[in-house]
Amino acid sequence: MSGAARVRTPLHGNNALGFTYLGVLFMVAFMGIGLAVTGAVWRTAALRDKEAQLLYVGGQYRQAIQRYYINGLRSYPQTIDDLLRDPRKPGVERYLRKRYFDPMTGNAEWGIVKGPDGGIMGVYSLSQDKPIKMAGFKPLDRAFEGAARYSDWKFVYDPAAQGMPPLTAAPSATPAIPTTPR
After folding, report:
1. What is the DSSP letter of 57?
2. Is 93 inside any structural domain?
3. Is 146 contained in some domain?
4. Strands (DSSP E) along 55-165, which ranges?
5. Start-to-end C-alpha separation, the chain
6. Best CA proximity match to 82, nearest among 121, 140, 108, 124
């Protein structure tokens, strides 16, 4: 063999390096696309989990308000703390185990729906984000379908919707005595 056959031309070596470089660029691009898709899927899954937590926690608040309403003088609690310990009872009676954080905002602060007596009739998230879940709610939460924001998901206890009598004033101390003309 002659020495000329073994010599590589500079052009031949640069072509091989160019193809390798191009292959690495494509591989990095595909990995980036894959990571972006994975991130979007993970974000959606995390948001769906927070929605499920919001539905659970909101339901706990609604249920606690209902029990408070039914176990007293048919009045709503004046504060969230009234659900943790009923001030109307001499002993300790709890309708809610603890204060729950709003899963959408991460804060302990909730929006309050006022009842006819000025008490707390319901709560809602203060998040202005658009929900992913738009349909398929349980019957009690059917009003959430098509809501534009999480703050539109109001967890309200309405006794009229449950077939209970509306709020009444406290009974008077002296009963009315009918009078007859003499």
Report:
1. H
2. yes
3. yes
4. 111-114, 120-124, 154-156
5. 145
6. 121
In order along its 182 residues, the chain shows pLDDT tens digits of 555 555 555 555 556 666 787 788 888 888 888 777 777 778 888 899 999 999 999 999 999 999 999 998 889 999 999 999 999 888 889 999 999 999 999 999 999 999 999 999 999 999 999 999 999 999 999 999 999 999 999 999 999 876 655 544 443 333 333 334 43
DSSP, residue by residue, 58-89: HHHHHHHHHHHHHTTTS---SSTHHHHS-TTS
Structural domain includes residue 115: yes
Whether 9 maps to a domain, the answer reads no
Would you call 102 exposed, middle or buried from its count of C-beta atoms within 10 A (0-12, 13-18, 19+)?
buried
For the full predicted model, state whether its pTM sits above 0.85.
no
Q: Do residues 129 and 150 lie in contact, with contact meaning Cβ atoms separated by under 8 Å? A: yes
Query: What's the burial of 65, exposed, middle or buried (CB within 10 Å: 0-12/13-18/19+)?
Result: buried
Number of domains in the chain: 1
Show the tokens assigned to 6: 């073994």
